[in-house]
Design a protein that fits this description.
Elements: H1 4-14, E1 23-25, E2 34-39, H2 49-58, H3 62-65, E3 69-72, H4 76-88, E4 92-97, H5 102-110, E5 114-118, H6 122-136, E6 139-140, H7 147-163, E7 169-173, H8 178-190, E8 195-201, H9 206-213, H10 236-245, E9 248-252, H11 254-268, H12 274-284, E10 294-299, H13 306-319, E11 323-331, H14 336-346, E12 350-358, E13 367-375, H15 379-391, E14 395-396
Parallel strand pairs: 2-10, 3-4, 3-6, 4-5, 7-8, 7-10, 8-9
Antiparallel strand pairs: 1-2, 11-13, 11-14, 12-13
Helix pairs in contact: 1-7, 2-4, 2-7, 4-5, 7-8, 8-10, 11-12, 11-13
Length: about 400
């Protein structure tokens, strides 16, 4: 059973292994509350996962350590297990779904683990790892549904309560549920009045659905760029702990996650991966009753693939209205582009691209379409530019 003593034991063993990551104040990210950020993205390996992995491996008897360890992971647990096995001088074989970022796979390899890539998502890698464990006799280190792993993650709850006084709520990302189970248990045992909220990606809401329906069930598929929480089924232990200690669970869209990643980079100079940013996204987009509350959001990881980062930034800019497009229908005559550009410049927006296309069969013979890409301050600024162009007598094609 999970106990506070077990979590404190984990904290003691992790003292010289995991960092006690900073909690920083974040004014402006969610203006209706006092938001603090628990920066587990700055943890060694770039994720909280090393806490649970190390404690689980440290608790193994020597005869089990000699057999080596096996794990499955979308990347962060893999790195945690690989580092823990390396420090313990034991072999590690890790099954990773093919959707995992290359950066996480390469980082795991550098720590000496044997990697086996599996087509599909986390659950597919889990099945392959379970089969291999039966063949090899190694010890399976579950990424979330294990009491020692949960206890290791629970040390984050101890640290948050120590670092932030009079806390009203903690917001935690959820994949399989190991992180929130440990954090919620620690927080509720030490401060029962503090709310604990969980957040999942809308395209991978297995724990969200289970929590709402009051029964554990699985998704047939998941769809989110937040690979670290792309889990089809919550754990048995984690589901039970969530039903006991979590106050509510909500979901956020991929666009909202991308916006949170962009905001963290711009305002706090913090790099978060998709899974790591969901708690901040929930606070930013009003998904939780935290107005005028003192709240801590856990940024669970920062291992985002640089190949996808530019796409995420671009999506965040589009979602917030800072990148926009206007399709203007007009007569193809000299001076039109100059006049439209003057309107845009006067209002302080910036033209980044212009495409001129001839009109179609339903337009004037001498008509054309002007597709203009803009940089604007926000969505209201874009609407102001759009209205000014319409007031000047031009027709916005989408209307």
């Amino acid at each position: 059973m999970l106990t506070l003593d077990r979590i404190y034991q984990a904290a003691h063993l992790l003292k010289n292994v995991a960092r006690k990551t900073d909690v920083i104040v974040s004014p402006g990210l969610a203006p209706d509350c006092s938001l603090y950020l628990k920066t587990e993205n700055l943890q060694i390996t770039g994720s909280f996962k090393v806490r649970g992995a190390y404690f689980r491996i440290a608790m193994l008897p020597e005869e089990e350590k000699a057999k080596g360890v096996i794990a499955c992971s979308a990347g962060n647990h893999a790195q945690g297990v690989a580092l823990s096995a390396q420090r313990s001088g034991i072999d590690a074989t890790i099954f990773i779904p093919s959707i995992a970022p290359l950066s996480k796979i390469e980082a795991t390899k550098r720590m000496g683990a044997q990697i086996k890539l599996i087509d599909g998502v986390y659950d597919d890698a889990y099945e392959a790892a379970a089969a291999y464990q039966k063949e090899s006799g190694g010890v399976f280190i579950h990424p979330f549904d294990d009491i020692d792993v949960i206890a290791g993650q629970g040390t984050i709850g101890l640290e948050i309560l120590e670092q932030v006084s009079d806390l009203d709520a903690v917001i935690v990302p959820i994949g399989g549920g190991g992180l929130i189970s440990g954090v919620a248990f620690a927080v509720k045992k030490l401060n029962p009045e503090c709310k604990v909220y969980g957040v999942q990606a809308a395209g991978a809401g297995s724990m969200f659905n289970s929590f709402k329906d009051k029964k554990r069930w699985s998704l047939t598929n998941v769809s989110t760029f937040a690979d670290g929480i792309a889990v089809k089924s919550p754990g048995v232990n984690t589901y039970e702990l969530c039903t006991q200690y979590v106050d509510d669970i909500v979901t956020v869209t991929d666009d909202e996650i991308a916006t949170a990643i962009l905001s963290l980079m711009e305002q706090q100079k913090l790099v978060a991966e998709g899974a790591g940013a969901v708690a901040v996204a929930a606070a930013m987009f009003g998904k939780l009753p935290i107005k005028d509350k003192k709240v801590c959001a856990v940024i669970s990881g920062g291992n985002i693939d640089v190949n996808i980062l530019s796409r995420v930034i671009n999506r965040g800019l589009l979602t917030t209205g800072r990148l926009s497009e206007l399709k203007i229908e007009m007569l193809d005559k000299p001076g039109q582009l100059r006049d439209v550009s003057a309107i845009i410049a006067k209002l302080g927006a910036n033209v980044t691209k212009v495409i001129h296309n001839p009109g179609g069969e339903n337009t004037d013979i001498n008509g054309c379409f002007l597709l203009i890409s803009l940089e604007t301050k926000n969505r209201n600024h874009f609407l102001e530019v759009k209205q000014a162009i319409k007031m000047a007598g031009y027709k916005i094609a989408e209307d």
